[in-house]
Amino acid sequence: MPDSINVLALFAHPDDAEFLCAGTLAHLSRRGANIHMATLTAGDCGSTTLPATRIAAVRRKEAARSAALVGARYHCLNSKDLLIFYDQPHLNKVMELVRQTRPALVLTHAPVDYMVDHETVSRLCQSACFGAMAPNFKTGARRPAPALQGVPHLYYADAFGRRDILGNKIESALSVNISATLKLKEEMLACHDSQQAWLKTQQEIPEAVATMRKMAAEAGKRTGLRWAEGFRQHLGQGFPETNLLKQLLGSLVR
Ligand SMILES: [Zn+2]
């Protein structure tokens, strides 16, 4: 892999990437890619005991610590939980992040997922990748990055639970074998200490690492892998159709 390849993992909240694609990021990092991990929010609603500013500060640190484990730089775009909208201010900041980080490969949420924040980030990411080449789109940043030369390869991680909100199954199109990076993925997820109690009380999720392992085992079933992360590539008009993830990770991708 040429070491100049940049990868952007853009998700709604701290710990989403750890559940959905950290094993794949670890593989890419080990092959020399420059990894950027970004969240729209700092997870300000992720506590029943701490006020928003306190929990957000805690979660920024957790996310940065997790990103460092995979050699990634962490970016927070300072939106608020449940207030991520498809509007100009959000598109400006997502577009600016894409232009600043100049990724060849972008990973984000599935277009259909269990919560609207995730779905909105998916759409913002799609538009930002598509429009990052258009110099007439001005982000309003004080020091704007130049437009990209090409549209990045865009991949959607599995929806949480691999189901839509009506319970219909959503199948991945490709699976990345994460057996060799599962341990690092667990360590990254474990950085998000503050969420253990929250997941238990609010979402009745027993234990984050156990839940993640169950998701990774489920994602591997289609292709006979023990541990996997599932993705679908955005193949709409204007986007590159070559399977860059497969080119970068070879036989790890099925
Ligand atoms: Zn989330």
Care to give the gist of this entry?
The protein is an alpha/beta fold and 254 residues long. Helices cover 39% and strands 16% of the residues.
What is the topological layout?
Layout: E1 6-11, H1 16-20, H2 22-30, E2 34-41, H3 52-69, E3 73-79, H4 88-101, E4 105-108, H5 116-131, E5 153-157, E6 174-177, H6 182-190, H7 195-202, H8 208-221, E7 228-233, H9 244-249
Parallel strand pairs: 1-2, 1-4, 2-3, 4-5
Antiparallel strand pairs: 5-7, 6-7
The protein binds zinc ion (ZN).
Zinc ion binds next to loops.
Q: Which stretches are poorly predicted, pLDDT < 50 over at least 5 residues?
A: none
List the ions, cofactors and other small molecules found in this model.
zinc ion
The helix/strand class is alpha/beta
What is the mean predicted local confidence, pLDDT? Answer: 95
Oligomer: single chain
How many β-strands, per DSSP?
A: 7
Radius of gyration: 17 Å
How helical, in percent, are the residues?
25-40%
Largest beta-sheet characterization: 7 strands, mixed
End-to-end Cα distance = 19 Å
β-sheet strand percentage: 15-25%
Q: From N to C, what is the helix and strand string?
A: EHHEHEHEHEEHHHEH
Give a structural overview:
The chain is an alpha/beta fold. The protein contains nine helices and seven strands; from the N terminus they run E-H-H-E-H-E-H-E-H-E-E-H-H-H-E-H. Helix 3 (52-69) links the parallel strand 2 (34-41) and strand 3. The model has no long low-confidence stretch (mean pLDDT 95). The structure holds zinc ion (ZN). Residues 12-13, 16, 118 line the site of zinc ion (ZN).
